Structures are given as C-alpha cells and as structure tokens.
Amino acid sequence: MSLTDIQNIPHRKLVLVAGKPGAGKSTLSQQIALHYVASDRQVIYVTTESTVEDLLRSLFDRGLGENVPDNLRFVDAYSQTVGLAGNTHSQSVYANCSDLNSISMAIMKSSIRMSDQDVLLVFDSLTSPYLFNGLNIVKFIQQFLSKFAADGNRVLVTMDEGFTEDKCGPLVVYGFVDICFCIIYYFFYFL
Amino acid sequence: MQPGYLSTGVHGVDQMLAKKGIPQGHTVLISGGPGSGKTTFGIQFLYEGAQKHDEPGLYVSLDEDPVDIKLNMLAFGWDLAALEKEIKLIFVNVSPVRSKSSEKPGLMQLGMKEFKLVKLLEAIKNGIQEIQAKRVVIDPMTMFMLQYPDETDRIHAMKDLIVELRKTPSTHLMISELRGTGLEREYQFEEYLSQGVILLRTIQKDNQLVRMIQIEKMRGVDADTQPRPYEISEQGIEVYPSLIAFD
Fold first, then answer.
1. ipTM for the assembly
2. CB-based contact A105 B244, cutoff 8 Å
3. Beta A14-19 vs A154-160: how paired, if at all?
4. Which residue of B has its CA nearest to A108?
5. CB A74 within 8 A of CB A89
C-alpha cells in the first residue's frame, strides 16, 4: 500500500492515524490536506497543538501557495487553550480544547461557510482534547466526528499512540493507520 | 412559521421545537444562571416578533433599567429604540428596587410594599392593551418572588400570575434565575407551573464556561429535550440543534 492510497480518505468515513510523537502524524495530515486543497476540495483543518500562523508556515514550506485559498479553513483550538490572544485570521474560528462543544460548534460554523457538502475535516490531534475531557473523547468521536463524516464528509483524525491502546479509539472508526518506525500499517475495518 | 406558533427568533431553537416554535398563548419559563443570556433570549424573542412578524412586544423589567438593556442590545445590531418609535415595542419598568433621592448615591432600597402581584399584573395588562402586544417578556421573575419569603405564598403568587397571564391573548416568557445550573439539580416549582421550560445551563470547566440549552418541556410540541450547545455571538444566541452537548 502506498501513500497515495492513504491520501484518499473514503467518503463518509473517519480514519484515525496513531503514532508516537515525531512519527509523522502531523506531516501526513498536512500532506493529505494539501492534496485535497490542490484538487479544489474543501478542507477544514483543526489544530490543537500549534497556532494557525505556525501551521500556515509549515503548510507554506510544504508547497501551499502564497495566498491561503478559500477552500481551506481553520479551527484554532490551540491559542485559547493555552491562553494566547490569537490573531484574528479571517479563515479561522476559535475553540478551546477543554470544551468539546466549542470545537464541534467551530467546525459546524466553518462547514456552513463552505460551498460544498463534501468536506475533508483534518483533526490534528485529539490528544489534547483527550487530556482535558478523558473518556468523553470517545463520545466526541462517535457522536460528533463520525456523525460529521456520515453526513457526507470525510474525517482524518490523529492521536498519540498511548491513547489508542487503552481506550477503545480504534474500535469506533472505519480506518486505522498506525505509524510505527516510519513504516505505515494501514487497516480498514470493513463493516 | 406555522399558524398558532411563535417563532422564537433564536437561531436553532425553533428547530428544537419541532420546527414550529412556541404555541401561542403559552407561558414559558426561561431559566438560567448569571451571564447565560436569559435577557438576550427574551429580547431576541421580542425583536423577532416586532421586526419580522408584525407582532408587537412588551418588555416588563423588574430589575435592569431599560435604558441599559437598549444600549447592550445595540451590540447585536438590534435597534430597540427604533422599534419603540414605531410602537412595535414598549418597555415598562416596574422594578421594586428604587433609589431614594434622600439616600447616598448608589444606595438602593427595596420598596417591596409598593410592589405586589396586582401592580405587576396591572402593568402587564396595560402594556398589552396599549400596543396590542402579542409577545410579553417579564424579566426577571426572581425579583417578584423575593417579595414572598414564604414558599407557599410564593407558589400561590406564581400560580395566580400564570392564571391571569393565560387570560390575555399574548404569549409570555418569564425569565428566572436557575439555582444549580449543572446537570444534577433540584427542580424549582416554577417549572411545574409553566407550560414550557427552557433551561440555559452553564458549567464551569477548566476556566471555561460550557453552555448548553435544554427544552425541558413544551406542552403541545414534540420538542427535542436533549441538551444542545449554544453560544452568544455577535448575532445573539445561536443554538446548534444538530450537535450533541458534551459536559
């Protein structure tokens, strides 16, 4: 299986990417997001571990054009969580990792502004909301993220490895990618 | 909106009310903690009626000065003074809290004896008559209840008030403070007496205020009784009826 296969997140499905810190979860998420943006599809990028400015810098390095295209929107769930007064970016909506409602509302708000029904939601990563909300995160995956996918979108979620082992994360998703020693294992749970 | 129902004007709430709204003639309790947006909800309801449905509104204030309310609501872009000029909206201030000129500035005194059920009803009925109000908001009921320290008296007064309000052709929102805004709480007797209860709940979580709205009951409507997340944005209260609320 090649990287190209992973780049295509199946319609109406949620795919979970797990791996140790530094394994390349964010890199993979950004590449997939750029792949979708480049093919004129709608992308909402939720960032919980860096500001939108930092994320943009990284996306620019990976080849995003100078102007942020209209089909790419952001949910900044980092700035408020750590108490930063974020710069108001016209394509960003703010949320706080300690309040899952603020995240789901911010994603809904961004998707309403999108022209298409079929949106790729990249959520990088779930670790921080998990630290604040504990097992409620499983409820969030099932009742919000999976539902968002089922409503006609695609969802890519990353999380740190330790979390997926003891919590039932992988059980509630359609696809599960485990990044381990830079070898990508890819499983699909066909239901 | 369907005949016989009033659109609340609060984005997402009508959808929770089976896409119908509040049944005409109901007396509905809007209950929430400080800063949960109770007054905003009430004003949004009146604004919707006056601005979009040609339904004049009456705002009965028992606490906050209407001047302040009008000023605060400008932030949402709602020009209440303009509606007042068009006689689509009136404010009646029946606050039992008055400042006495003999007192030092800032000192307030409770003038409870002057303020009784009869007086409140009179103000409401006159107001309704004056502009043929279809929508009435009484904010907050807490100030009215304070006059009845005894619980039995309080229940009777509340019951009398609701009975009298039902005789009017208007639809009423009674705004009250919610004791215990969390998920586990005691029911307040006002909730049993009114025909509808909408709770604006707030939970303090890691220095973050988590807000959720719940329609506890609405007689005659197959309402969605699940708590749903909401926020107070530049457009007023916005509810996301398709989202599950996480506590």
1. 0.80
2. no
3. parallel
4. B240
5. yes
